[in-house]
Amino acid sequence: MSKQRIDSSLMQYIHVLIVTILVAGTWILFSAEFNPQEAIAAIVAGLATGMGGYVLRKQTRHKIFGFRLWLKHLPSFFAGGLTDCWVLTKMLFRMVAGYPSRSTFKKIPFDTGVGKPVDTGRLVLATYGITLQPNSYVVGFNKDRDEMLIHLLDPNHERPIKEDIRRPS
Amino acid sequence: MIWIISILLFLAVFASLVSSLGILLAKDSFERLHFLGPITLLGSIAILLAVFTQEGFTIITGKTAVTILVLLSTGPVLTHSIARAAVIRGDAKRLRGEEWEVSE
Amino acid sequence: MNIFLLTSLILVISFIPAIIATIRGDAIDRLIGMSLGGIISTLCLITLAVGTGRSIYIDVALTVAFLSFSGTIAFARFLERWL
After folding, report:
1. C-contacting residues of B 16-55, CB under 8 Å?
2. Range of the domain at C70
3. Residue A161, by phi and psi: left (phi above 0), alpha (psi -120 to 50) or beta?
4. ipTM > 0.90, yes or no
5. pLDDT of residue A1 exceeding 50
6. What pLDDT digit, counting tens, does each position of A84-120 carry?
C-alpha cells in the first residue's frame, strides 16, 4: 500500500518533468534560434505549465490513469489502421463498379464501468483506437445496457476488441 | 534516396485521392465519414517520413512532427464527434430506417 | 520542379471533391467536406514549405490544423440538437 503511494507521487513528479521538457522543447523549436534568453524563457514557460497542471490535478483529485494500457495497445491500433487503408481502397473500387454497399451499424457488448477514472480511460482508448482504424468508427456508448455502437464499412474485415480493454482488469 | 521520397509521397497522394473520391462517391453520410481515415493516418505519416528522409534532424522536421502529431490526435476525435452528432440528429432513422440511442 | 511542389499541386487537385461535398448535400455532409478540406490544406502547406525551403510556412500549417479542429468541433456540437 505505502509502496504504491510512493510510486504514484513519484509518477506525478515525473509527469511534471516530462511536461516541462516537452513545452520547453516546443518553445525553442518554434522560436527558430537558440540563445540564453530564449532558453530561460522556454524553461520558465515549461515549469509554469507543468506546475499549473500539477496544482490542477491536486485540486480536482484527478489521477493519471491507463498509461500502461495506452502504451501496450497503441502500436497495434496504428498497424491495423495502416492495413485498413487497403480495405478502404478495395471498397472504393467496389463502389465505382456499382456493387451494393455492405456497411452496417453493429452493437458490441462493452463494460462501461461505474464511472471510475480507469473506466473513463478505457472508454477513451477504445474510442480513439477503433476510430483510428478507417474501416470502423465508434458512434457512442449506451451506459444503461453496457454496449457500444460502431459503424463498419466492410463487416468482413472487422477487428475484435482486446479483452483487457473491454472489461476492467 | 530520391526513390524512397518518391514512393512515400506517392503513398500520400494515393491516400488523399482515395479520401476525396470516397467522399465524392459514397452513398450516405455514415459511409462518407469512413473516408476521412486514409488521409489522416497514411497521408500524414507518409509525408512525415518523406520530410525526415529529405531533411534529416532539422527544424523543419521538428515542426512537421509537431503538426502531424496534432493531426493524428485530433482526427479520430473529429470523426467520432461528427458521427455522434449525426446519430443524435436522427439521420440514422432518416437515411437507413434504424433508430439508435446514445447516452452522454 | 521539385517533387514536393508536385505533391502539393496534386493535393490541391484533390481539394476539389472536398469543395463539391461542401457546396451540396446535407448539413453533416457539408461538415465532412469542411473537415477534409482542413486536413488536406494542412498537408499541402507542409509540402509547400519543404518544397520552397521556407520553414516559416509550417507555422501556418500548425495554425490551420488547430483552427480547423476547433471549428469542426464547434459545428458538430451545434448540429447535435439545433439547426
Report:
1. 16-17, 19-21, 23-24, 29, 32-33, 36, 39-40, 43-44, 47, 50-51, 54-55
2. 3-79
3. beta
4. no
5. no
6. 889 889 989 988 888 888 888 888 888 877 777 777 8
What cell numbers appear for A68 in the block? Answer: 500502461
Q: Is A51 helix (H, G, I), strand (E, B) or coil?
A: helix
Q: Look up the domain containing B74 and give its range.
A: 2-96
Question: Average pLDDT of chain A?
Answer: 83
Please provide the distance, in angstroms rounded to a whole number, between the alpha carbons at the two ends of chain C: 47
Q: Within 10 Å of residue B38's Cβ, how many Cβ atoms? A: 28
Q: What's the pLDDT at A5?
A: 53
- Residue count of chain A, please give it: 169
Domain count of chain C?
1
Total number of domains constituting chain B:
1
The answer to the question of residue B101 being in a domain is: no
Q: How far apart are CA A83 and CA A73, in angstroms?
A: 16
